[in-house]
Specification:
This is 3-dehydroquinate dehydratase. One of its GO terms (molecular function) is 3-dehydroquinate dehydratase activity. Keywords: Amino-acid biosynthesis, Aromatic amino acid biosynthesis, Lyase. The protein is of the alpha/beta class. Helix content is about 35%, strand content about 15%. The chain has five helices and five strands, in the order βααβαβαββα. Strands 2-1-3-4-5 form a five-stranded parallel β-sheet, with helices on both faces. α3 runs parallel beside α4. The longest helix is centred in the middle third of the chain and has 14 residues. It is globular. The protein starts with a strand and ends with a helix. The structure holds 1,3,4-trihydroxy-5-OXO-cyclohexanecarboxylic acid. 1,3,4-trihydroxy-5-OXO-cyclohexanecarboxylic acid binds next to loops.
């Protein structure tokens, strides 16, 4: 069964209590439930979170090996992790799908958030729509477009 990997970077495990004015008051379990409700038959979803850069990179390697499409919220790694960018490129250069998502709109926030080192190797970017950023990414993947 094809599995969509939904990978979340540092501090996203604190969703629910972390800056609710920016990120809302729902946590990752609520995100998992919401995405599962949108999942068509024949698809599986694997949502993970880590604060560790190496772990996130190893999950992208796993996506390369399994050919799984990826929805990635790199969180703060977005703005400076060349290691994560290179791992994302391993997914997309051979034709795999990796959609970068953000809950907030980083471009409307502090200047350091305006740079993404991931976007240049992502299949696409969706930002600023809360958890709907993930839902829109999932819709794109399962629609096969
Ligand atoms: C974020 C935006 C990043 O700038 C920030 O570091 C995050 C979350 C978002 O989803 O809006 O941790 O990726």
């Amino acid at each position: 069964m094809p599995t969509v990997l939904v990978l979340n970077g540092p501090n996203l495990g604190r969703l629910g209590s972390r800056e609710p004015d920016v990120y809302g008051s729902a946590d990752l379990d609520a995100l998992r439930e919401s995405l599962a409700a949108d999942l068509p038959d024949g698809w599986a979803l694997d949502l993970r979170q880590t604060d560790d850069e190496g772990t996130l990179i190893s999950w992208l390697h796993e996506a390369v090996d399994t050919g799984s499409p990826v929805i990635l919220n790199p969180a703060a790694f977005t703005h400076y992790s060349y290691g994560l960018r290179d791992a994302a490129a391993l997914v997309t250069k051979p034709g795999g799908t990796l959609i970068e998502v953000h809950i907030s709109n980083p471009h409307a926030r502090e200047t350091f958030r305006h740079t993404s080192v991931i976007s240049g190797v992502a299949s696409g970017v969706i930002a600023g729509f809360g958890f709907d950023s993930y839902r829109l990414a999932l819709l794109h993947i399962v629609s096969g477009s």
